[in-house]
Amino acid sequence: DIQMTQSPSSLSASVGDRVTITCRASQSIASDLNWYQQKPGKAPKLLIYAASNLPGGVPSRFSGSASGTDFTLTISSLQPEDFATYSCQQSHTTPLTFGGGTKVEIK
Amino acid sequence: EVQLVQSGAEVKKAGEPLKISCKTSGYSFESYWIAWVRQMPGKGLEWMGIIYPGDSNTRYSPSSQGQVIISVDKSISTAYLQWSSLKTSDTAIYYCARLRGFGDLLSGGWFDPWGQGTLVTVSS
Asked: Which residue in A25, A99, B33, B113 could disulfide with A69, CB within 3.0 to 4.6 Å?
């Protein structure tokens, strides 16, 4: 199985901060990496697909990048509505696997 | 508009059977994989399995294999997740999600949209 190691597990940041979350795959997954945002009591929502693509409606302050088996989600300027938990997920092969999640909290 | 609407919360006792549903609308049900994802209290997301309604091709995670059954009813565009005998450790929120990507290929896809979730509480 492909393991997805996400870091950090939590972080505290202020509005306006630049935030970076990383996800490392245990083996090559090409660009088959997606990011989801989940707010308390809500279902996850697609944020980035195929490592770096933004779905319609997702603000441009969110971006994704890849370098080998390392993937990064960046929020360029954190907004109040961005405080949530972010999870990566590989879709390269079954079993499909998620990272452990990163909870972004208000500093 | 693509929608996945899940059945309501369930409170069960260990050993009881359960079947929860995910009713879809707004797209061609047979042409997209539908997955089930578990979220245990205070924990992360865990993929359980996935089914292609067009031919009922189904894949399970190692931990879900033999523990649950994923099925569909194409006539009503609905996917199901069922247990024959619940355990207290099955207490969780269960989400269904459509896999978008490249036709009937699993690889390279992404989950969008998701259902609202079904809370399953199992007591001893």
From this structure: A25
For residue B63, with 0-12 CB atoms within 10 Å meaning exposed, 13-18 middle and 19 or more buried, which class applies? middle
Tell the residue number behind the tokens 């929608």, with chain if given. Answer: B3
Token reading at B48: 């359980």
Examine the pLDDT at B103 and tell me if it is beyond 80: no
Mean pLDDT of chain B: 96
Considering only the beta carbons, identify the residue of B108, B113, B117 that sits closest to A91.
B108
Going by C-beta distance under 8 Å and a sequence separation of 6 or more, which residues neighbour residue B101? A91, B107, B108, B109, B110
Could you tell me if B111 lies within 8 Å of chain A, comparing CB atoms?
yes
Interface of A with B in 14-53 (CB under 8 A): 30-32, 34, 36, 38, 43-46, 49-50
Question: Residue B59 — very low, low, confident or very high, per pLDDT cuts 50/70/90?
Answer: very high
**3 state DSSP class of A42:** coil
| Distance separating alpha carbons of residues B40 and B35, to the nearest angstrom | 16
Q: A96 CB near a chain B CB, below 8 Å?
A: yes
The pLDDT, as a whole number, for residue B76 is 98
What is the per-residue pLDDT for A106? 87
Phi, psi of B119 (to 5 degrees): -85, 125
